[in-house]
Amino acid sequence: MVLKKINDPSDLKNLNITELQTLADEMRTHMLTVLSEHPGHFAPNFGTVELAIAVHTVFDTPRDKVIWDIGHQAYPHKLLTGRLDAFETIRQTDGISGFLSREESKYDVFGGGHSSTSISAALGIATARDVNNDDFKVLAIIGDGGLTGGIALEGLNAAGDFKKDMLVILNDNQMSISPTIGAISKHFHKLISSRGYNRLRSGAKELVNFISSDAKALAQKIEASLKPGTLFEEFGFRYFGPLDGNDLETLIPVLTGIRELSGPILVHVVTKKGLGYKPAEEDPVGFYSVSGQFDLKTGKSLRPSSAIPKYTDVFSRTLIEEAKQDSRIIGVTAAMPGGTGLDKFADVFPDRCFDVGLAEQCAVTFAAGLATEGLKPVVAIYSTFLQRGYDQILHDVCIQNLPVIFALDRAGLVGADGPTHHGVFDIAFLRSIPNIVSMAPKDENELQRMLKTALNHDDGPIALRYPRGIGIGVKLDAEPKALPIGKAKICREGDDLLILAIGNRVHPALEAAKTLSETGIESTVVNTRFIKPLDAELILDLAKQIGKVITVEDGVLMGGFGSAVLETLADAGIMDVRVTTLGVTDRFVEHGDVTTLYDRYGYDTQAIIRTGITLAVGS
Questions:
Q1: Active-site choice (360, 444, 446, 553)
Q2: Which fold has domain 3-290?
Q3: Is 388 an annotated catalytic residue?
């Protein structure tokens, strides 16, 4: 088995082309075996096997610096850089990351979890190399979807101006998570649909075989033979391509030649998502990331279906029903129509749903523009990705007090995707901005009611955050009613302890209160509902009566919900109340099983019970 002989990339240089092709087949087989048992990003990695082999064969890594954009395309890179034995632990608690991690490997030059950062990072590394009088090569590998992000274009613009020696490899598979959209995508499609590209695919091997073996001459002749006018040349890059990114016999000699050239260079390769596994080839969207075990022969999930709907599905259905009654409702997303449920909204209202690509800043300001004309934009973005639009939320939406609705999917811990994807910062970063209302439902029915509340709110921006996965299993109202802004609800009454919970921590708080009651400690549990504005009147009244308070949230403590409660008490001059805040401490949370992480960071049901006993008994 060739794969087992690869301990690091230097071992690739001793293999002939036949052995390298065998290695590619073995890598796909290994990834398929592991990922059918342990969920992970699937289709994009099957398309980059040959690309990873070619890069590590031609370049002298880790001396030469390879920066992979995001990480969804870098599983083959992990297999070739000493992580074969650990690969079966990928994305599991205490296992290796599904993304790039500088702490994990010297071959992971720059961490990648959010898209479009690789070109700017590579430019920084190339500039540092020159400042330090070093001579290694620098290359960034970015997907075509990544180029829809503004920072990627900013990086291209700066790199073309700085004229540093660096290589950008554009991995074009016509998709990010969903099919890539926008003018840049259309430009790529035009290129790869051209007769020139089709001639290249059929004649690439002959071109390589009959051209001079001199590397620099090879690169120059290939460049001369492939000259489809391209926007990259306007950015100051020498452009090569499009090339077949799944053909080692083309990739290796072309990259060998290009390695000797100077200045900013872009190589455009076309790869196929899911290559080597037919179900993934036929459904690259469905197989972008697998979320559970599946049958190797059919590709069908082995996870038992749940009668309880996912929060995302409840959001999508509710938005569709509301939009049937109000033609002003518009859906906006940033390359995540499937993940946010807006794909279903688009099926019903194709002219009222807009995907701006991997460009959260554009999505937010685009929505602000819609709002100025009396429409009701609903910006559906994962919590972790909304961070990328922070300035636009503050500057373009909140300062102007525009009625933009933010639907933050995957809020709180999300598990296997780790620190780049946990949605634990939105409570804190939204709470500090004037004018915005922020709320979190305790269950899927309250999500319906909060979406209704948001759609009825015309006085400024409003955000609702909700977790990943299925709901609690509560009955859904046929016609959800709006909630009064800033009003909490008492779910259980008791004189010994006050538990203030927000969002998906309400039910664990109720479970904890039930157990505490069995020990003789009676708790008042409040579903706070609103982070901003808080129901200060209710909280102050109960805190003064009971005197012992626990706050619990699925987010960071610094500046979070618990901080808001403490500030409210301090502003009212109440200093004799004991308060313990539960949530994420001042650190980034690693990847792993969500249940394990809640326990590890001390804000699950058992943590609430322990804290409650300490507070009650300690009096």
A1: 360
A2: Rossmann fold (3.40.50)
A3: yes
For position 219, what pLDDT does the model report?
58
Give the Å distances, CA to CA, from 414 to 420, 468, 594.
10, 6, 7
Is 80 exceeded by the pLDDT of residue 222? no
Over residues 575-586, the pLDDT tens digits come to 999 999 999 999
Q: Which CATH architecture has domain 489-617?
A: 3-Layer(aba) Sandwich (3.40)
Residues of the chain with CATH 3.40.50.920: 489-617
Please choose, from the candidates 430, 349, 358, the residue with its C-alpha nearest in 3D space to the C-alpha of residue 393.
430
Residues belonging to the chain: 619
Is 234 catalytic? The answer is no
Is residue 229 classed as helix, strand or coil in its secondary structure? Answer: coil
Residue 49: pLDDT band (50, 70, 90) is very high
299 in Cβ contact with 339 (< 8 Å):
no
Name the one residue in this structure whose structure tokens are 């690869």.
6
Closest CA to 146 of 188, 174, 172, 115: 115
pTM: 0.90
Q: Is the distance from CB of 274 to CB of 42 less than 8 angstroms? A: yes
What span, in angstroms and rounded, lies between the C-alpha atoms of 52 and 546? 61
Catalytic, out of 78, 83, 273, 344: 273
372 vs 328: CA distance, rounded Å: 12
311-465 folds as Rossmann fold (3.40.50)
With a pLDDT cut of 70, the percent of the chain lying above it is 89
What pLDDT, on a 0 to 100 scale, did the predictor assign at position 231? 81
pLDDT at 439 over 60: yes
Residue 567: phi and psi, rounded to 5, are: -65, -40
Angstrom distance (rounded) from CA 615 to CA 596 = 24
Is 552 strand, coil or helix? Answer: strand
Model confidence band, residue 187 (pLDDT cutoffs 50, 70, 90): low
* Res 20 pLDDT > 70: yes
- Assess contact for 477 and 445: CB atoms under 8 A: yes
Please say if the pLDDT value at position 74 is more than 60: yes
| Residue whose token pair is 């980034």 | 588
Best CA proximity match to 170, nearest among 43, 287, 265: 265
pLDDT confidence of residue 588? 97
431 is catalytic: no
Three-state DSSP string of 491-551: EECCCCEEEEECHHHHHHHHHHHHHHHHCCCCEEEEECCEEECCCHHHHHHHHHHHCEEEE
Higher pLDDT, 390 or 112: 390
Q: Rounded CA gap, 104 and 328, in Å?
A: 48
Nearest to 525 by CA among 550, 495, 500: 500
pLDDT of residue 93: 93
Specify the pLDDT at position 248. 97
For residue range 224-248, list pLDDT tens digits in order. 555 554 689 999 999 998 999 999 9
Q: Which of 78, 83, 137, 388 is catalytic?
A: 388
d(CA 188, CA 412): 37
Say how far apart CA 345 and CA 330 lie, in whole Å. 9
- The full 3-state SS of 394-419, as one line of letters, equals HHHHHCCCCCCEEEEECCECCCCCHH
Distance CA(239)–CA(225), nearest Å, equals 11
CATH 3.40.50.970 placement within the chain: 3-290, 311-465
Give the single-character DSSP code of 475: P
